[in-house]
Amino acid sequence: MNRKGMETRQHIKTKACQLFAKKGFKEVTMKDICDSTGLSRGGLYCHYDSTARIFDEILNDFMDNQDEEFRSKMLEGLSAVEILDDVLDRYREEMIDGEASLSVAIFEYFSGRGNACEENPLYQQYLFSRRMWEELIQYGIDRKEFYQVDKTAVFDLIVFSYQGVRMYSRIMTITEDIPLRITSQIRKILVRREG
């Protein structure tokens, strides 16, 4: 695909992501995406044949970016605490911003797609994210920056508290103190006392 085609696809995903965050997955139509991007139906269908295809690619991009972010920073030899703080700072900001949350759209998209955990794509996303977090936590343990912890349990605390707050942010006001308390506790669980 040429550069212009790649730019168009990125524009579509950016605009669609905003729509999914605002309306959820089920309420967004290809017409909505055409209106938001300024593309004709033919122009949009040249790149994507459904909202599901677009959403799949958005989710894959998010996971790839998170994986690359963790992996590249660890390969650079950055402090595990620094990597953790960067991620927790971003999570704190995202938990407050209910308008930008894809949590409802993700729930709608994956609902009813495969009953068994092993077949459910959301469960596959969970496993992928867990592997990334467990690698980061082990990196911190190996560098003696993090306590020896149950990596899976800590990941569950992170992902389910984060997603829970993102879901609640759609139906109630989330003040800054809620994500701050959560991320502070996660940090206390992981980070050895400095100094």
Proportion of strand residues: under 5%
**What is the percent of helical residues?**
over 70%
Query: What do we call the CATH homologous superfamily of the domain at 58-190?
Result: Tetracycline Repressor, domain 2
Please describe the biggest sheet, giving its number of strands, its sense, and whether it closes into a barrel.
none
The CATH topology of the domain at 58-190 comes to Tetracycline Repressor, domain 2
What are the segments in which pLDDT stays under 50 over at least 5 consecutive residues? none
Beginning-to-end CA distance, first to last residue: 52 Å
Give the count of helical stretches: 9
Q: Give the overall pLDDT as a whole number.
A: 89
Counting DSSP E segments of at least 2 residues, the number of strands comes to: 0
* The CATH architecture of the domain at 58-190: Orthogonal Bundle
Radius of gyration using CA atoms only = 18 Å
Helix-strand topology string? HHHHHHHHH
DNA-binding region: 29-48
Keywords: DNA-binding, Transcription, Transcription regulation
Protein name: TetR/AcrR family transcriptional regulator
Domain HTH tetR-type: 6-66
Concise structural overview:
The protein is mainly alpha-helical. It has helices spanning 3-23, 30-37, 41-45, 51-75, 80-96, 103-110, 121-142, 151-168, 177-190. The model has no long low-confidence stretch (mean pLDDT 89).
Give the topology:
Blueprint: H1 3-23, H2 30-37, H3 41-45, H4 51-75, H5 80-96, H6 103-110, H7 121-142, H8 151-168, H9 177-190
Helix pairs in contact: 1-2, 1-4, 4-7, 5-7, 5-8, 5-9, 7-8, 8-9
Domain HTH tetR-type: 6-66
GO molecular function, one term: DNA binding
Keywords: DNA-binding, Transcription, Transcription regulation
